[in-house]
TrEMBL record:
Limits of the NIF system FeS cluster assembly NifU N-terminal domain: 12-130
Family the UniProt entry places it in: Belongs to the NifU family.
One Gene Ontology MF term: iron ion binding
Gene Ontology terms: biological process: iron-sulfur cluster assembly
One Pfam family of this chain: NifU_N
Membrane-spanning ranges: none
Taxon lineage: Bacteria, Bacillati, Bacillota, Bacilli, Bacillales
InterPro entries: NIF_FeS_clus_asmbl_NifU_N
Protein name as catalogued: SUF system NifU family Fe-S cluster assembly protein
CDD domains, per database record: IscU_like
Amino acid sequence: MSSNNIDLDALYRRVIMDHYKKPRNRGVLEDGSHTINMNNPTCGDRIQLTFKVEDGIVKDAKFEGEGCSISMSSASMMTQAIKGKKVEEALQMSGIFSEMMLGKEPDDSIDLGDIEALQGVAKFPARIKCATLAWKAMEKGLKSEK
């Protein structure tokens, strides 16, 4: 492994831990239009995702739950990423994220921001469900919107 890969892995770990220790959008939206509860029974991760959709745009998103650093940081990153996006864009991001979890290079047409830090999870199949839990909850809620 080159030193560039080591540096990138270290950076990704820092980004993941930053979102885990200082989660963005943690809480419950009192005026949310959607509430989705999901869990990963194999490891005990659970999430409650609330978001507000108006005129086909995700206006706000928050999450509550408990789980490993991968699960909670992924929820933090996801809620940051979908705010202000059209429902279709958020679902497209979810598809790109799912492909990334299968080891595919992320599509450059959409800026994933911090989410790219989760790319390394694809090397650990047991952790993929942790990373995708919040995304699956978001998909379930947004697909009910259509």
